[in-house]
Amino acid sequence: MDELILHPLAYARRIRGMTRADLAREICAAAERRGLRSGTDKSRVRKWETGVTPDKDSRTYIADVFKIPRKDALTRDWPHWLPGADERVIPLGPDSAVPALREALRAAMDPLDRRNFLTFSGSALTALATSWATSDTQPLAQAMNGGTVDEDLVTMLEETSPQLNRLATEQRQHAVILLDAHLSTVVNLIRHGRHTPVIAQRLHTMAASLSQTVAWNRFDQGLHTAAAKLWIAGLHSAHANGDRDMGAALLGDLAYQASWRGYPQTAAGILERALTRTSHPTARSLLQLRLARAHAAQGDTRATHAAITVAEKSLAAASGRPVPAWCSWMSEADLAVDTGQCLLDLGETRRAHQLIREGQNLLPPSRDKTRGVFLTYQAKSHLDLAEPELAAAAALKSLELAQRIGAPRCVQLVRDLIPRFEEHPGAQGIPELLERAAA
Fold this sequence. Notes:
- This protein has 439 residues and is mainly alpha-helical.
- The chain folds into 3 domains: 3-75, 434 Repressor (Amino-terminal Domain), CATH 1.10.260; 89-278, no CATH class; 364-439.
- It contains 23 helices and no strands.
- It has helices at residues 8-14, 20-33, 42-48, 56-65, 70-75, 97-108, 122-134, 151-165, 169-172, 176-192, 197-220, 224-241, 244-260, 264-274, 281-297, 301-316, 332-345, 349-362, 368-384, 388-405, 408-416, 418-421, 430-438.
- α10 (176-192) packs antiparallel against α11 (197-220).
- It is globular, with a radius of gyration of 23 Å.
- The relative contact order is 0.07.
């Protein structure tokens, strides 16, 4: 099996010739050396290698086994401090877009890429964001290889690609192959075509936008390695064009993924760099809101409220420029619900519940996937308020919606709440929810 699709813990033990049972014994021995006990067995190691995060003590014992400083295990994101966890990120440069796009396409078409963990370390992603924030682009050169790229073909792709990008989630699930094909076509034209710098710029604009859309498709399917590589590839194309707002968008998506996977510190580091070189108020509002979510997940109340305040002011700010397409959907509904989710993380449940409900009411019918996510937030807020019946109703609506539009990520959000619903087996709606979630 390709080592790049192994979980870093599996990779670390395999390069040392260790089975899961071997590693479990070594962890127990590390605990005994500290005068403590660990109940680790090969089954628990398997869970860690398929997405479960070890507790603080277990991470300390694992660090002992691999001779890694204890502070790394306690201060760096799991599992990125493990040996071999870093995968090389292609650095930004004048000729970096094509290799990044080729690597992203390979990952996107790889049926084995079904692991629920990131293959890039937080430090590698933050370094990429720092490079983007501190480097300048160079003019695109005229490509002299291959056949001449027909301008009519480029125009046709420019007209059809946005139509595919704008499809509602329920329809986009039927157009995945078309989106993949459009991206592949654009990449091949960049790689093999003879084109002027102006045509190259138009192609890279499409490559960045299509990479973003295809990445979100892979992310929704749980294919996190492919999603990350596609967002990174889009960043390279945006950088080649000098499109700072689009570059910030792609970094913002990488940060969103990091938060989703439970690495808010990495997300905050990426977003802080993305915010240094994006200027449109709506774009800044969205990035500040994601930064607030990352701070809230870390329990930083002051930083969370500061970012929310900036997000509110930025969204309300007038701008003579058109809103970038990638954040044109950003609205008061998103601000309300994500602020509510921040407050949930900070324990401000009543106010959080009110904001989430308000945001739900503001959301237009066209954004069903977002509605499904918001409904799970609403369900969680009802659970926090000891209102299991209302929570079940919201969760069931989310589940039905997600299954109808083909949104596995939303389905998983509901399933993640099931253990909390199982604490209230007699409450109205919960037996039906448990049955639907198990189907």
